[in-house]
Structures are given as C-alpha cells and as structure tokens.
Amino acid sequence: MKIQLALVLILIALITLAWQPAKTFLLQDSCLDQGGKWASNGNFCIYQNCAETSSCKPSYRNNSICEELKSGISQDELYFHLGMPESRSDNNFVFTAGGGEKEITATIMSGKVVKLQCGT
Predict the structure, then answer these.
(1) Confidence class of residue 62 from pLDDT cuts 50, 70 and 90?
(2) For the chain, what are the domain ranges?
(3) Domain 48-117's class?
(4) What whole-number distance in Å separates Cα of residue 33 and Cα of residue 16?
(5) What is the number of alpha carbons within 13 Å of residue 26 lying toward its C-beta?
(6) What number of other Cβ atoms are within 10 A of residue 106's Cβ?
(7) Does residue 71 contact residue 77 with C-beta atoms inside 8 Å?
(8) 34 CB-near residues (< 8 Å, 6+ apart)
C-alpha cells in the first residue's frame, strides 16, 4: 500500500512538472494563431488590439523590430510592435529601445507614422 501511494505521488509530481511546459506551448500556439506575439520573457500573449486597452508591452529587442517597420503604418500597429510609448510631446512619441540602446522616436499624425527614428 505504501509503495502504491509513493508511486501515485511520484506520478502526480511528474505530471505537475510536465504541465507547465505543455501549458506554455499550448498558450503560445493559441496566441500566434490569433495574430498575437508571444512574450517569452513573461510567458504571456500580446494581442494585436493591445493599443485599445493600453496594454502593449515593449520587447527587449525593440531596435531590431523598429528597423523592420516602415513609415505609414498605423499608430496601433506601432504600439503592437514597440509597446506603449514612454512619453509624448504633441505628435512626437518616445519608445523604449531595449538592450541599453538609444530611444526610439516616432512622429504620428492622424493615426499614421510619418517618421520613425530607430535608436541604432
């Protein structure tokens, strides 16, 4: 009886240890299927509508991401990729650079990015 109890407890412990990676994989897959991006540093999903709820988070590699973006994208798309701005003055927005690099600045007019200056 004691051996069976020990085996059951060991089995429960193994299932518990295996559940977290499996859960993360399932959540990440679901996130990407919905058009979101996975934040591996916190194991959470950043959804494309994050600008509507002011919940967009920056990436540690924001400057690399910035280099891939083009002027003309929407303000919401910029927030999705770079996170919410750190500060704003009129039409000028400042974003976290990540990795200790210079800040990223953007000029946004009528909801569109007209100028994007990456910090690299």
Answers:
(1) confident
(2) 1-33, 48-117
(3) alpha beta
(4) 26
(5) 6
(6) 25
(7) no
(8) 45, 47
